[in-house]
Design goal:
By secondary structure, the chain is mostly helical. The protein contains eleven helices and no strands. The chain folds into two domains: about 60 residues, Arc Repressor Mutant, subunit A, CATH 1.10.10.60; about 130 residues, Tetracycline Repressor, domain 2 (Orthogonal Bundle).
Length: about 210
């Protein structure tokens, strides 16, 4: 890495902020290119050139394309962990379930582009060394959320309802992302259905 680039990362607060901004822009551009032209057809050199940085600067943040994918998934998992930790500290009530559903919807809606990219590049990303780890991480979080959305003495049917709630949010956010007039319209429709499945719909909601 050139001296100036190293200082931009290791310097004071402004330099540190610029470093974080560069990392964010690298990820955003990589995500865009992976979705548009495919994971395999996108190179680190192209990402660096498009962003106007040296390849050495890119290597400071990400050693490979797989590192970029891993960082995107790790951020998603970290958000799920925060939601799970919050849910575990709350009483097992319908109000808590409603907030968990709203929190999960927000996380999924914010990460829709990431999972659309993973879906579009299934064959390529499935062969990555981190694919198994990624699947296990997300599966563990989904299990934890399903438990939080199920009454302590819940039946198998209750667990299925909770899991269906989470899956409906994930699938519908991706499926209808580009088929609605606005993201707010989609999120409202998804939330209404998900709250019903989680047995957490407001008391005044229509039957």
């Amino acid at each position: 890495m050139h001296t100036g680039e190293a200082m931009a990362v290791k310097g004071g607060g402004d330099e540190h902020d610029r470093g974080r901004d560069t990392r964010s822009r690298l990820r955003e551009l990589a995500l865009k290119l992976f979705a548009e032209q495919g994971y395999e057809k996108t190179s680190l050199r192209e990402i660096a050139e498009r962003l106007g940085v040296t390849k050495a600067a890119l290597y400071y943040y990400f050693k490979s394309k797989e590192d970029i994918v891993r960082s995107l998934v790790e951020d998603y998992v970290a958000e799920l962990d925060e939601l799970i930790a919050w849910g575990k500290a709350q009483p097992a009530t319908a109000a808590t379930r409603a907030e968990i559903v709203r929190g999960y919807l927000h996380i999924v809606a914010s990460g829709t582009e990431v999972f659309r990219m993973l879906h579009q590049n299934q064959a390529a990303v499935a062969s990555l060394a981190s694919a198994k780890e990624r699947g296990e991480l997300i599966r563990e979080r989904m299990d934890a959320l399903t438990d939080l959305l199920t009454e302590p003495a819940g039946t198998l049917r209750d667990q299925v309802r909770a899991a269906s709630c989470l899956m409906s949010v994930s699938y519908c956010c991706m499926r209808f992302h580009d088929r609605v007039a606005s993201a707010a319209e989609l999120e409202k429709a998804v939330l209404d259905v998900a709250l019903e499945l989680a047995d957490a719909a407001p008391a005044d909601a229509p039957a």
